[in-house]
Amino acid sequence: MISKSLAVPPQHLRVAFFTMLGVAAMAGALNGAVALGEWVSRAAPTSEPTPAAVKAEPQVEEEAEPAPPPPAFQFDAPLPGRVINSPFGLRQLPWEENGRLHQGVDIAAPGGAAVKVAADGVVKATGVSPTYGRYVLVMHKGGLTTMYAHLAGAAKGVKRGAYLHRGDTVAFVGNSGRSTGSHLHFEIRKGDKPLNPSFFLGRSFAEANDLPIKAAGKVSRKVRLATVSKWPDSVAKAGKTAGGVKVARLKNGRVRATIPVVAIQAPGAASTASSTGSSV
Ligand SMILES: [Zn+2]
């Protein structure tokens, strides 16, 4: 019958079939062996500690207290060794009638002095403002920002997106914007809220909850009269042309001159227009 003769393949075909099967099985086994060998040789150095590593870890160290993690927030003075000569708080400038919030601290330093970034952060903006002059704004963890103003200029490579480590030079001291002498105006903010930098500089905080946001955001009712080395040109000039200088003798014997000034506001500047000259 035809079907019977087909069911049994000729002898030589069967031999070829089993030979191929055998070769394939051997190849597979060989691959497996090679892979296993590679894995063992790779794993060996790490799975077996060297005698030196064992010696370096004596039994007692396992019970020693682990080193505390580094503080999450650390702030350094932007001009190390220099003093704050105008603090955060309500301040009245000699040519103003009322006190206004000085939203940062002023640190006097010669022009060109290197300004250090107070904490690790990323540059958010650099620019020029009529009041702040040349400035650099840096973003930090926890929604905090620091600002460096009245600069001669930003340091090399300091532009939006640049990462800065605490202590890196961010800018150089200048006298740009509405400033009465060479100094750094330095601010710390949480969102839009200005904070007293004295609560932060030279201090570190383990975690965000330790930041003195509430205390640093408080503004004393006391108005401090600022002493300035020179009056800004805008105030002096406007005073001369307007002419209407009012001189008042105060109860404490001090004499105050009030000079009407038309605020010079650059287009696009934040509207803090006042009737007198201002300083930040
Ligand atoms: Zn200032």
Description:
By secondary structure, the protein is an alpha+beta fold. It folds into two domains: 2-47; 73-223, Glucose Permease (Domain IIA). Helix content is 23%, strand content 27%. Strands 2, 5, 6, 7, 8, 9, 10, 11, 12 and 13 form a ten-stranded antiparallel beta sheet that branches. The protein starts with a helix and ends in a 22-residue tail after the last strand. Residues 1-8, 32-54, 237-245 and 259-277 have low confidence and may be disordered. The chain binds zinc ion (ZN). Zinc ion is lined by residues 86, 102, 104, 106, 185, 280.
Quick structural overview:
This protein is an alpha+beta fold and 280 residues long. The protein is 23% helix and 27% strand. It has 2 domains: 2-47; 73-223, Glucose Permease (Domain IIA).
